[in-house]
User: Which sequence fits this backbone?
């Protein structure tokens, strides 16, 4: 897939509580809200409680994509439920459109499979989110279910 994260000088690490403000700011960005399952503005209290729980939840795996200079690029969230894992990605608004997304998705999945589970990985993408659809297809996902509001994509061979 062209240039990988190493060439782009990006690496992935686990999320820590210190990432809280960045993740909240990106989550409350208008485009992210529009493309999320719930679109209300999240308060700092609601977010802190959510992140604290998520970091302790064995069914979740949270990654931060970073440049080698230490700039945060994007948040990747894996959530295991009923034998499947759902992945979502939020690129920092100022870093969007720089063609990072497919590489980040691809390497985040490799890391998830190495460190956590081998089970079907899916992405639920709103039908009008063409940029996200492109990113996940480019990373190696395939459309497995077309719904009214969401399309479901699955990683790898299906
Ligand atoms: C969706 C998202 C993850 C994509 O990441 P990104 O870094 O902006 O996307 P990229 O720069 O890697 O571009 C992906 C593709 O979309 C195209 N693209 C990017 N921005 C675009 C835009 N504003 N309009 C049209 N096409 C666009 C790129 O050209 C690229 O396609 P190509 O490889 O065929 O040229 C990011 O925009 C984001 O975080 N959005 C808000 C949250 C969200 O929707 N998350 C996904 C929920 S599952």
Assistant:
């Amino acid at each position: 897939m062209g240039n990988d994260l190493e060439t782009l000088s990006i690496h992935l690490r686990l999320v820590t509580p210190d990432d809280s403000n960045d993740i909240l700011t990106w989550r409350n960005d208008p485009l992210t809200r529009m493309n999320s399952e719930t679109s209300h503005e999240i308060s700092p209290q609601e977010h802190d409680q959510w992140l604290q729980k998520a970091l302790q939840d064995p069914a979740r795996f949270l990654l931060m994509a970073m440049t080698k200079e230490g700039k945060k690029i994007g948040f990747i969230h894996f959530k295991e439920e009923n034998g499947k894992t759902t992945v979502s990605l939020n690129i920092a608004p100022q870093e969007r459109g720089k063609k990072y997304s497919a590489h980040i998705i691809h390497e985040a999945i490799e890391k998830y499979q190495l460190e956590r589970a081998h089970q079907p990985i899916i992405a639920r993408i709103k039908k009008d989110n063409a940029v996200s659809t492109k990113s996940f297809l480019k990373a190696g996902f395939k459309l497995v279910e077309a719904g009214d509001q969401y399309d479901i994509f699955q990683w790898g061979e299906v």
